[in-house]
Amino acid sequence: MIERTVEQIAQMAGGTLSDQAFGEENIHGVTTDTRNITKGALFIPLIGEHFNGHAFASKAIELGAAAILWDEKEDNPPEGVPVIVVNDTLEALQRLATSYLKEENPRVVGITGSNGKTTTKDMIHSVLQTTYHVHKTDGNYNNHIGLPLTILAMPKGTDIAVLEMGMSAKGEIEFLSHLAEPDVAVITNVGESHMQDLGSREAIADAKCEITKGLKENGVFYYLGDEPLLRERANAISQTVKTFGEAEDCDIRVNHINQLAEGTEFQVEGYAQAFLIPVLGKHNVKNALAAIAVGQHFGLTERKIAQGLMQTKLTGMRLELIKTEKSITVINDAYNASPTSMKAAIDLVGDMDGFANRILVLGDMLEMGSEEETYHYELGQYIKPEFIDYVLTYGRLGAFIAEGAKKTFGETRVFSYVDKEELKNKLAEVAGPSDVVLVKASRGMRLEEVMTVL
């Protein structure tokens, strides 16, 4: 984490120290949340639509904060502690992170995409840490607040920072890219997430390609070569461009995939050995290809890359495999959902052998825009009754999944609920020993709560 004197912090953040007598005191870390205060930290109070962090400054000091950043427009700054006055605390946080990144000067890998960016981040981190000191985005700290906090949490001596970049609107990834100035930029894919805000897959592709705006002149851009929208836009990028995927002309190309009970095995064109990821789903092989490409970029051997992939630990609720006391296998993928990721998870369950029943528990996909009902209905039609035994849905939009599925399943194997307790009761009724259950929906649906019944 950042460790500087108060005076150094003030200079890096573009602020003014209210009392120079405090200038040589030391700061250890940064937080914007009093629940995460550690002794000696700098507390940065942010201002939002419904909150003002300045109201918690006294509490932060009580909990051990060593200094406070303070918006010049706010009254009554605390006394008796170092106070750094700035024009805007959010801008100061971002400026502080940029300064720290430049001073520590690690190489930076920036990652974005509609689906799979967190999994790809975890895989790249696991591969690179076989050889380097690597720092990565924690959880989904990937926006205009989370990214600066991720950077400021970076330990001294970090060789490579692996930074996830998320978005909800046009221009956001461009801002993050300029803030981090990556040496390597990765786009995992272009899906339908944020259709509500951006309106089309073409606009989503444009927004994802903003990650190259801050890419260093000698940087490298890796993207999924199977996606035509990315291929079209890659032609306009002046830096080195390389691809990964299944297409014949991809620079890193998979040529065989084998789904195993403990993970997914695959082979890559030009590599002598097979790779194994402890992650379910053939679609995750493409995320692993991005990790192989980045590992190769930083000079890792095949053996090191394979070792790193095998040791990957994913952020929670992403195809998380759980064995219950009732001998039911649960796949918890309830962190997010889009048509692309839903279909990939459904295909995964359909490919899994050795189970008495394959059960889907699916909820609303959010932020899908004006065509949201159509997306859900078409997803229901996508589910094949020869591979899936039961479909249970939750939510207003989930009802359209059920409606689509009933076209081929009929009425006796598809059930739709808007009450979570009723859903749980039905799941307890149909799920038994030796069954596999997929739980997937957008984060706002909190669908993982139904797993308690199993």
Précis, in short:
This protein is α/β, with parallel strands linked by helices.
> What is the C-level CATH assignment of the largest domain?
Alpha Beta
Find the structural class using helix and strand composition: alpha/beta
Distance between the termini: 40 Å
Q: How many strands, what sense, and barrel or not for the largest sheet?
A: 9 strands, mixed
Produce the secondary structure layout.
Elements: E1 3-5, H1 6-13, E2 16-17, E3 26-28, E4 30-31, E5 42-43, H2 57-62, E6 67-71, E7 83-86, H3 89-104, E8 107-112, H4 117-128, E9 134-136, H5 146-152, E10 160-164, H6 172-180, E11 184-187, H7 195-198, H8 201-208, E12 220-224, H9 228-234, E13 240-245, E14 252-260, E15 263-268, E16 275-277, H10 284-297, H11 302-310, E17 320-323, E18 329-333, H12 339-351, E19 358-363, H13 372-382, E20 390-394, H14 398-409, E21 414-417, H15 420-430, E22 436-440
Parallel strand pairs: 4-5, 5-6, 6-7, 8-10, 8-11, 9-10, 11-12, 12-13, 13-14, 18-22, 19-20, 19-22, 20-21
Antiparallel strand pairs: 1-3, 2-7, 14-15, 15-16, 17-18
Architecture overview:
By secondary structure, the protein is α/β, with parallel strands linked by helices. It folds into three domains: 3-91, Udp-n-acetylmuramoylalanyl-d-glutamate--2,6- Diaminopimelate Ligase, Chain: A, domain 1; 106-310, Mur-like, catalytic domain (UDP-N-acetylmuramoyl-L-alanine:D-glutamate ligase), CATH 3.40.1190; 320-453, Mur ligase, C-terminal domain (Protein-Tyrosine Phosphatase, Chain A, Alpha-Beta Complex), CATH 3.90.190.20. It has helices spanning 6-13, 57-62, 89-104, 117-128, 146-152, 172-180, 195-198, 201-208, 228-234, 284-297, 302-310, 339-351, 372-382, 398-409, 420-430, and strands at residues 3-5, 16-17, 26-28, 30-31, 42-43, 67-71, 83-86, 107-112, 134-136, 160-164, 184-187, 220-224, 240-245, 252-260, 263-268, 275-277, 320-323, 329-333, 358-363, 390-394, 414-417, 436-440. The protein has a nine-stranded mixed β-sheet, sandwiched between helices. A six-stranded mixed β-sheet has the order 17-18-22-19-20-21, sandwiched between helices. Strands 2-7-6-5-4 form a five-stranded mixed β-sheet. Helix 3 (89-104) packs across helix 5, helix 4 (117-128) packs parallel to helix 10 (284-297) and helix 10 (284-297) crosses helix 11.
